[in-house]
């Protein structure tokens, strides 16, 4: 669990209060990490075991021993990094990690049915903790009225809270920051239906 019960309830209540005044549907999603990074772990393990092998050459080790060292060091690094995936993240460029997280966010937007609402006014606040990544994805009707630059300013502030592990604060600030604009552009309708859950979704 990334958020405790009380924190989830606070965020859900904020979404509920917002949706009493707007036809837009907000969804809060949070995950620990956005990819298995299997290929990256494999490559890093190979590189580290190669370094160990090169160092071993200075000790006049025979071929059989060298092969054993290569295999054992590879297995050691692979199991270690696979167990603690944050290690591999230290070696990856921020842009690469963000690309992985963004791909995951867009997949979840579709997987959670946010493209299938009747009014096409769904908004997802996506947080990937280990990548320290935040993305706000909006559906068709929201995109047409609100420029992407508006969301980017909110994301910048949200990322600061994610880096400080203040996830609840980040969600609340983001929801409040966009509330006025969304209520103005997408006011609540008499026949409004709440199609999406207000509960925080943990992946």
From TrEMBL:
<feature type="transmembrane region" description="Helical">
    <location>
        <begin position="71"/>
        <end position="92"/>
    </location>
</feature>
<keyword id="KW-0812">Transmembrane</keyword>
<dbReference type="InterPro" id="IPR007621">
    <property type="entry name" value="TPM_dom"/>
</dbReference>
<feature type="domain" description="TPM">
    <location>
        <begin position="87"/>
        <end position="179"/>
    </location>
</feature>
<keyword id="KW-1133">Transmembrane helix</keyword>
<keyword id="KW-0472">Membrane</keyword>
<feature type="transmembrane region" description="Helical">
    <location>
        <begin position="41"/>
        <end position="59"/>
    </location>
</feature>
<protein>
    <recommendedName>
        <fullName>TPM domain-containing protein</fullName>
    </recommendedName>
</protein>
<dbReference type="Pfam" id="PF04536">
    <property type="entry name" value="TPM_phosphatase"/>
</dbReference>
